[in-house]
Structures are given as C-alpha cells and as structure tokens.
Amino acid sequence: MMAWLPFAIVGWIAAVALYGIVASRNLVNMVACLTVLQSATYLLFASIGYVRDAAPPILYAQPPPERTVDPLVQALCLTDIVVGAGVTAMLLAMVLQIHRRTDTISTRALRERRRR
Amino acid sequence: MSLPPFAVLLPVAIAFPLLVAALLVSFAALMSRTVRDVALLGTTLVEVAIAFALFSRTLGGLPVGYWIGGFAPVMGARSPVAPGIALYADPPAAAVVAMLSAIFLAVIFYAWRYFRVVEEYFHVMLLVLLATMTALVLAADIFTMFVTFELMSVIAYALTAFRVEDDDALTGAFQFAMLGSIASLLMMMGIAFVYATVGSLNLAQISRSLGDTGSPLAAAGLAMVVCGLLFKLTAVPFHFWIVDADTAAPTPVAALSSGAMTAVAAFWIARLTGTVIGPLSPEIGATFGHILLATGIVTVWLGGILAVFQTNLKRLLAFSTISHMGIALIGIGIGGTAALAGAGLYAVTQALVKAALFLLTGLVVHRHGMMDIRAIRRDLDPKHWLGCAFIVGGFALAGAPPFGLWAGKAILEEALPHGILGTALFVTLAGGAILTGGAVIHAALVAFFRIGRPPSYGAPPLKDASDLSEFEADGASPAHTPMTLVAAPLGLLLLAAAVPFLPGAIGHAFQMASVMLDAAAYRATLLDGQVTLRAVPPATLPGITVSLVIAAAALLVPLGWTVLRHELPGARLLRMLQAGHAAMLNDYILWLLVGFTALIGWVLIAV
C-alpha cells in the first residue's frame, strides 16, 4: 500500500504547483510555482528508481552491493535539476528586465500595456 | 552500420558549432564584429557541408549510426541491450538536418548586414541553437531528445528576448519561456512514465520492449511527450506562445522559430508515431492517429481564420505557421506512407517559405520602419518589389506550383481516406491554404499597392507608427538595402521551388516516409547492426490542376475584404477570438493544461 505514496505525493505537489502557476498574477510568484513543479519531477524520478532494501549505487565499493537503486534515473534527475536551475535563472532575469522597463510585474498589467 | 568515417560526422556536426561558440564567448573581447561574423558564417558553411555529405550518404538508403563513447549494444539475456546513447541519421533525419542547415545559412547571411550593432551573444546563441537543433534531429534516445529539446527551447527564449529594450519582446519571451517550461516539465514526467514501464531510454530498445504490450502507463507517458512536442509545433490549444513571441522577436529569430523549430517538432512526432506509438498496440496507434487528426483540423481552421484578421505582418505569419502545422499534423494523423510523405514534404518546404517570408518582413521593417500594414499603406514611397515578393510568398503558402508546398499538399490529398472524413479533410486542407495564402496576399496588396481595405474586427488600434520595431533594423540606412538582405529570402524561395523538381525528390519523400514508419528496420539497424536497403519507389510529380484552383481561390480573401463592407454575422465571435489571443499569460497556461488533460484523458479512455 505504501508503494504508491511517493507517487501520490508527486501528483499532489504537481497539482499544487500548477494551481499556483495558473492563479498567480505576480511574475515572480509564477516562477516560484514553476520551481515547485520542478520538484515534483525530481521526486517522480527518485521514486521510479527506488528499489526496496537496496544499496546506493556505489559500484566500486568493496564488496560491491548485490542490489542497488537505479543509477540511471538519478542521472536523469541531476540533468533535470541543472536544466531547471538554468531555466529558472533565465526566467527571473527576464522578470527583472520586465520590471526595469515597465515598472510592473503583474500579468494583468502586461496585458493592458499590450492592448494600449 | 556504416563505415567509421561517415559515422564520425554525426558528433562533429553537434560539437563543432558548440566549440566555435565557446571560443567566441571566451575571446569576445579580442574579436571585432567582422571576425565574429566570419566565424559564424564559416561554421554554418561547414555545417551545411556536413549536412549535405550525410544527406547524400543516406539517400542511397544507408543510415548512419554512432554510439557515443563506443558503448555499442551488448548481448543481453535474450536480445541485444543498448546501454549507450546513440546518434542516428536515416534518410528523413538527414533531410531535416539539411533543411536546418540551409535555413540557418540563409538567416545568418541575412543577419550579417541586418543588425548594425549586435553583441557577441547573438552569434554564440545562434551557434548553440544550430548545434542543439541538429542534435535533436539526430537523437535516437528519448532522454537525449528531451535534453536537446529543452536546450533548444531555452536558447530560443533567450533569443526572442534579445532586444531587452523592447518590452513587447520581453513579454513575448517570458510567455514563451513560461509555457515552454511547463510543457517541458510535463513532457519529462511522460518520459519518466515510459522509462518506468520499459527500463530503457533508447528509442529502439523502447520500441522492442514496448511492442504489443499495450501498457496504459506507457501510453499516458507517450501522450505527455507528444503533447510537449505539440506545444513546440504550435498545435491548438498550445499555440498561444508563437503569436506574441514571433511578433516581437528579432526577425532572424522569428524566422528560425517559426520555420525550423516547428518542422523539427513535426519530425519528432512522426518519429515517435512510427517507432514507438505504432507498435505499442493497434488501438493505441489508432487513438493517437485520431488525436493528431482532430488537433490538426482545429489548428488549421483556427490559424487560418485568425490570420485573415491580422494587421501586423509578423503576427499574420505566426498564425499562418499555426495553420500549416495543422496540415502537417493531419498528414501524420492519417497514417500510412503516402500521407506521411506529403506531410513531411509540406513541413520542410513550409519551413523554407515561412523563413523567407519572415526575412522579407525584416526587409519591410528595414525600409519602412513599421510592421502594421495600415501604417505602411500611409507611407509615401511603398516598395512595389517587396509587395510582389510577398504576393509570390502568399501564393506559395496557398500551395501554388512550383513551390514544394504544392507537391506536399497534392500528395497528401491523394492519400486522404474516402467518404465524409476525406471530404472534410480536403475542405480543411483547401481552407487552410486559401485563408493563409490569401491573408498574406491581401496584406501585401493593402500595404504596398493600396488595393483593398485593411482588416478590422478586433485589430488593435494603430499606434503611433514610429514606436513599432524601432529596436530592430538599426542597420544600414533605408536608402540603401544591402544585397544580402534580398538574396537570403529569395534564395530560400528558390530552394522551396526547386525541391519538388530535384531528381527523384518525390520518390525519396516516399522512401523517407516508409523508413519513418518501419519500426522493425529501425530496431534492426540500431540494435543488431543489420541494414536493410530500401528501394526508392519511382514517383511522378503530382497533378497541378487542383492546386492551381485552390491557389487562385486564395484571391477570394482580398476580394472578400473589398466587397463585403457590412458587418459579418460572426463578428462577435471573431472579436472574442482576437481578444482570446491578447489575453493574460494565466489564460494561456490554463489552455495548455486543458490541452494536456484532454489529450491524456482521451488516450487513457481509449486504452
């Protein structure tokens, strides 16, 4: 029964993050909720790779472990974290520039400026 | 597998632009603008050479594969297991790489004299974009596909916001980035589901392990991956990003994102359909086909109808991209070699023509300083030759011979199913061609020849003409247009016109389509090293009568605007649609999530 708990948590975090993104009218808030969504994907990868009663995937240890958790998924997770960090940094840099040029970081105000 | 010399071209094609980009960034302070331009142009020429070497090699039917680090497949318990990361160029992949390098060459040639002052970041980012797009097409591994897809997107976001002084560009880029990041994250979750089912990331391995299991988790995962690709393809309801991003991005960037990126996304949807989704189970394959068909039909009509009502040239072209990508989706959704051949030919030549049209728009900005056709119309000295070029481009979009879109659409029309669905699809294809081509022709007639009425119904009020695109084209004075600015779009249009007439082009299109759909051959070549040579079917050029009639019907659009002076019956709906495309970012995100939920739900219900 406990096996599905991590996946349920992934679903919950993703749902909360998506709600946060859709409902936020402040651009910084939106980027922060995107970060939460990224966390959901990290947790998903970690949960998929988990093997019960298995060792960390340190294969050069003496003696080598018989069962390890999946190291490939951990590599995917790391790649995901790096890409996420880069994207978040760029998004926040854009928000800074938007604020510098338009003195607002509200999505509603951005729409009004475009309509004018 | 092929001989080592050719296989090495694959990683070189990806690594070389990255190396040059790294050198440019490191020694930027020592380099003048000329050195940077020469480096950029030189690298692109090398890439073109590599692309065409690969293309000629695979044209004979010999695919080129490369396992990075030499981690070739090893014999597992029962069958080969692929622990490594592969790059794979079969005929369709090589064709798309060739198209990419041609578009990049034209755009870089154009950008050389387009910007008077541009920082080195532009050159660096373009090189990285070229490298990541090439890597995306050559990837044979679903996570490599994701990483290169994400890298390509991030560079595209940054390039769209290149002119940070322009807050329209910043807004458009932020929306693009936000929507793209959400779509990518959901796509990554889909990849995680597929991995959870199969335990491998290599596309051939997934195809072999998933084949005939009909797993619902894998189907849901693949649905999420396809949705992420549909976002980049600008399918409805994931299309909102391109409207604002392409309007505000610098012209060379808009040409690349509208032309090349969408074609690569279409290529990957076709690849996934052929190698993984098709073999999964017949019901799932059919469901995905229906999903792509339905999405394609809606996309064609929405893009086409809204294109007619745009007054901003780039916004008009963005909507026409949406519509044309819908046609490509219809071709992939119908399934079968002929439809896929038509769709592939259409997507590739659409990329060429659309890039050419965007570069022409840059010329308009360069000479007139504005993008709104109402403002150009008021200019005292309209350039008629520009108008003629736009009209030719408009007819090309409408599927007039001799441009490649005619050949692609005609092949697709011949592959339509019979009955009511076939008729509806034919009307959709014709409607998309007429509306998008007609919109471009009408815009050119209004702006450059002062014939006809500019579009109304929700078009934004004409701002002071001077504040449009003042951040672009700070290039040469309008009195003198450098030849490169004219040569690049004309070169792309000529290439698009020449493609159907190249010797054996249509036959090769059919061969490429059958290669895409043959999952067994893909697995055999990548995992077992067995190459099946595939014959090129003799094929003739498709008929021109229907296409000529439809292309001529594109003139109905400017005619309609001139003749119909009363308020149209659907005016309120049109204004709502227009307002919907100038809405808050939150609305666009909501549509994206609705699209994801609907498509994944459809797949899960059908499984």
Uncertain regions of chain B: pLDDT < 50 for 5+ in a row? none
Radius of gyration of chain B: 23 Å
Taken as a percent bin, the fraction of beta residues of chain A is under 5%
Spans of chain A of at least 5 consecutive residues whose pLDDT stays below 50 are: none
Strand arrangement across the biggest beta sheet of chain B: 1-4
Main β-sheet of chain B: number of strands, strand sense, barrel status? 2 strands, antiparallel
Give the total of beta strands of chain B: 4
Share of residues in helices of chain A: over 70%
Order of helices and strands of chain B: HHEEEEHHHHHHHHHHHHHHHHHHHHHH
Strand content of chain B: under 5%
| Silhouette of chain A | elongated
Number of helices of chain B: 24
How does the helix and strand content of chain B classify structurally?
A: mainly alpha
Shape of chain B: globular
Largest interface between protein chains, with number of residues from each side: A-B, 42 and 38 residues
Walkthrough of the structure:
The complex is a heterodimer of chains A (116) and B (607). Chain A has 116 residues and is mostly helical. Chain A is 72% helix and 0% strand. Chain A has helices at residues 5-23, 27-49, 71-102, 107-115. In chain A, helix 1 runs antiparallel to helix 2. The longest helix of chain A is centred in the last third of the chain and has 32 residues, at 71-102. Chain A is elongated and about 65 Å long. The termini of chain A are far apart. The relative contact order of chain A is 0.13. The mean pLDDT of chain A is 88. Chain B has 607 residues and is mainly alpha-helical. Helices cover 72% and strands 2% of the residues of chain B. Chain B contains 24 helices and four strands. In chain B, the strands form two sheets. Chain B has a two-stranded antiparallel sheet with strand order 1-4. A two-stranded antiparallel sheet of chain B has the order 2-3. In chain B, a hairpin with a 4-residue loop joins strand 2 (74-75) and strand 3. In chain B, helix 11 packs antiparallel against helix 12 (313-334) and helix 15 (384-397) packs antiparallel against helix 17 (420-449). The longest helix of chain B is centred in the first third of the chain and has 32 residues, at 167-198. Chain B is globular. Chains A and B meet through helix 1, helix 2, helix 3 and helix 4 of A and helix 5, helix 6 and helix 24 of B.
